[in-house]
């Protein structure tokens, strides 16, 4: 897939997964978080890494705008989702910072190790912040389960993408 097409696909996947995760939490509550962690948040973590390689010049600005867009769209589609949108924004911003820093620190390693290594850290940040803000607290056994699901899910998404649309040589990953 061409470089620009891959970027547009990643943006679309990121937004669709973030919005779907926000709405599933809003409609189904905490019971939806295992699915969200394994499939949707894991997809966001990997697409963020894919965009990291493409946006190295304007990474921070573009990621902030992407995260903000997902939260604004969630809110606009249902104003009742304001608490979820705020929790999502704060968690994704902190997760994005953690992921970006770790991905950059691991820049000398092969792509799959960068993705998994950065997502181990960013999945933990997300697993702690989102439920704390959205639900008013953390249940540690559930948080650890979500963290493990996000790490495993992101590993599987990364394997799929590196075998299909993410095969081209990456740009130098910079922060």
Based on CA inertia axes, which overall geometry fits?
Answer: globular
Mean pLDDT: 87
The rounded Rg comes to: 15 Å
Given as residue ranges, the uncertain stretches (5+ residues, pLDDT < 50) are none
Oligomer: single chain
| Helix/strand/pairing category | mainly alpha
How many distinct helices?
A: 6
Q: Give the biggest sheet.
A: none
Q: Tell me the β content.
A: under 5%
Number of strands: 0
Query: Can you tell me the number of structural domains?
Result: 1
Q: What does the model show?
A:
With 175 residues, this protein is mostly helical. The protein has one domain. Helices cover 80% and strands 0% of the residues. The protein is built from six helices and no strands. It has helices at 3-28, 33-54, 59-77, 82-105, 111-135, 140-163. Helix 1 runs antiparallel to helix 2 (33-54). It is globular and about 40 Å long. The two termini are 25 Å apart.
């Amino acid at each position: 897939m061409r470089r620009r097409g891959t970027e547009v696909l990643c943006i679309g996947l990121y937004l669709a997964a973030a919005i779907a995760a926000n709405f599933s939490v809003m409609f189904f509550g905490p019971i939806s978080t295992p699915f969200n962690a394994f499939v949707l948040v894991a997809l966001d973590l990997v697409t963020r890494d894919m965009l990291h390689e493409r946006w190295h010049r304007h990474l921070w600005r573009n990621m902030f705008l992407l995260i903000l867009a997902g939260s604004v769209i969630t809110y606009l589609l249902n104003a009742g989702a304001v608490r979820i949108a705020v929790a999502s924004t704060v968690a994704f911003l902190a997760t994005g910072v953690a992921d970006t820093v770790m991905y950059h620190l691991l820049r000398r390693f092969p792509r799959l190790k960068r993705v998994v290594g950065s997502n181990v850290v960013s999945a933990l940040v997300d697993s702690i912040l989102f439920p704390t803000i959205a639900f008013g607290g953390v249940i540690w056994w559930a948080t650890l389960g979500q963290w493990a699901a996000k790490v495993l899910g992101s590993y599987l998404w990364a394997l799929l993408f590196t075998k299909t649309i993410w095969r081209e040589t990456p740009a130098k990953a910079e922060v």
